[in-house]
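Attaching the record inline, Q. Sequence:
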Amino acid sequence: MNAQTELNKPLESVRILLSEIIDYAGLFPPSQVSMQEAVLNYATYRNSNYGWMLGRFIIPVARLDEFIEFAEEFISRDGSDDWRLSVLAGEDIAATMRKINEFGRLHPKGVVIDALEVKANTLSKLDNTLTALPPEINGYFEISMGDEFVDLVTALAMSGQRAKIRTGGVTTEDFPPSREIVRFVRTCMAANLPFKATAGLHHPLRCFKPLTYAPDAPQGTMHGFLNTLLMTAFARESFRPSLLEELMEEEFEEVFSFSPAGVAWRSEHFLTNAHLALLRTRGMHSFGSCSFDEPVEDLRAMGLL
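Structure, as predicted:
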């Protein structure tokens, strides 16, 4: 896969697909670095050659005060280059919103909270959160795939919000099967509901690797973020579920071919740059990763960066 024409200048199709794709979650396992290190990492990534791939800084609402203590020296004071935060809500949504409002009042420049991530496995929890959510903050709702799944997707789509899917973790049991991810994505795309993914997508393609950074870490099969992105794009084009599952389980980079005009899978299925742009605005918005370096290093090895 040789998509790069000039040093550090990826093809337009790669830019469209991966722009602001990685929400940095360094505070969370398996990296779980300190706030000081996470803030320094994020500032470094923003100023790197690959800063265009970086999305929001993900932070629990309870750690906002700790964040500003370490971020203050890095953030702009004139509002010209705001840091964007995605806040993980606590159990009490009213308390979460009070904390966010207080933070915005005390720190009006340099930092913008424009996303809230919430677990909402019932319609009542969803309704309570939607009532409290101000229009300037986008909600990403991690919903269960149980009996109320379709109703939750429908309610989110009607409210103009977004969904969230957990695609991995630190044990093999945390990784849902491909068919479950395909079901989630097809249902969201049928309802015109954008979503983000979280956990487990450290590598571009499906692979068998250690699940944490510990020397004796268990190994398991991890989903790839390129697999998930392109599967979502083809799901938008109503590809049959069995083919989407095959795409989720592709492990060889040779079957993907990027060009200035788009990307092909198996030389017979093609997504134009217009398809990729729609994918990113109306399909998969981003994925949370505790590592920014791993995705970048893998993409460089594939010749995409």
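DSSP finds eleven helices and 13 strands in the chain. The mean pLDDT is 94.

More tomorrow.
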